[in-house]
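Q&A log
Question type: sequence-to-structure
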Amino acid sequence: MKNIIVFISCLLIISCGSGGGGGSSNNSITLNLTPTGEPLEDASKIGISFPPVTQYPEMNFTLPHLQRLAVSKVKYSENWKFREPEKGTYNWAPLDERIAYISDNNLSLMLNILTDAPDWACSEVSNIKNCVFESEDDFRTYISTLLQRHPNKISQIQFGSEWDNIDIYPGTAEDYVRFFNIFHDEVKKHSPDTEVVLGGISKLYPIGVLANLGGQLTFDKLTLTDITAVHEYVYGLASRKDTVIPRVEYVLKNATYDAVDLYLYDDYENWGKYTYVMQQKTTRPIIVSEFGGPHPEFEIDTDAYQAEKLFQYLETIKSLPIKDAYYFKLVDNYSSFHQKSGLINIVLEEKLSYDIFMAR
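Response status: OK
Response body:
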């Protein structure tokens, strides 16, 4: 299997060097793709993204598990369309309840403001899940009102998720920066203790950069169900580099932020390389607000395999020079792409991975 995986890497980067840290670019530059800096190490900095907190029964289910797992950091999302379904008519109670519950129980919150909005606030540039907002003033009012209700109670806040992928965020890089910088300014004005985090960047960007550099990707540590499909998948990601790289680099240069968020899933043996890429492009701290797996299409599907991989994810995350990390997620959810990455299954039974995470 190893030779086949190296062959996949060679197809991705055109040329291959020796295995391990890097390859040889077209200019014969030898690359060291190892990130530098102090590793995370501290397991208390590992939280959980998207635990169930929508209503009080979910909160009361989640809190004992977070306490048992020694988790003090959580991430969840907020959607404008649920707060202001009609212009000027707000429904703040659900968000107020969640933030109060988290604050009252001494948890730290990362809040992800989605790039979605009520229909009245969306421009014609939209898709099924996200849109470019019609009015800067309407967005500014929504964000400022939210923050004035909860000043300095949100530890970290970000705008958007996987905006590097035009299939997810339909706007241009300029659109994203325009609204992100409004968002940043309102946070600093109304909740100055809150850290502003650039919305999560997917692996599209680092894979594209590595393809240009001649960096080698490996998949030796995964038990794959379809090697050909993995090859096609990674090659497809790399083939988008000419649109993804300038999009991300425009945002990194022109947005104002305190930290950068990088999503890391599945191929943990390459996470150091993806982190290396981000270190070359920004001096801001790196946060990983979603990490986990296994890949639901390309890896075997057993609780024992998930537990084995989770141990390796945790060891890898703790070795990276990042600021914080959040595991995806507490409970399996079939509406997510990584449907079975939870520590608890769909019928609310603890899985083998639960104890692995608790022992981190």
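Response note: The first strand starts at residue 46 and ends at 49.
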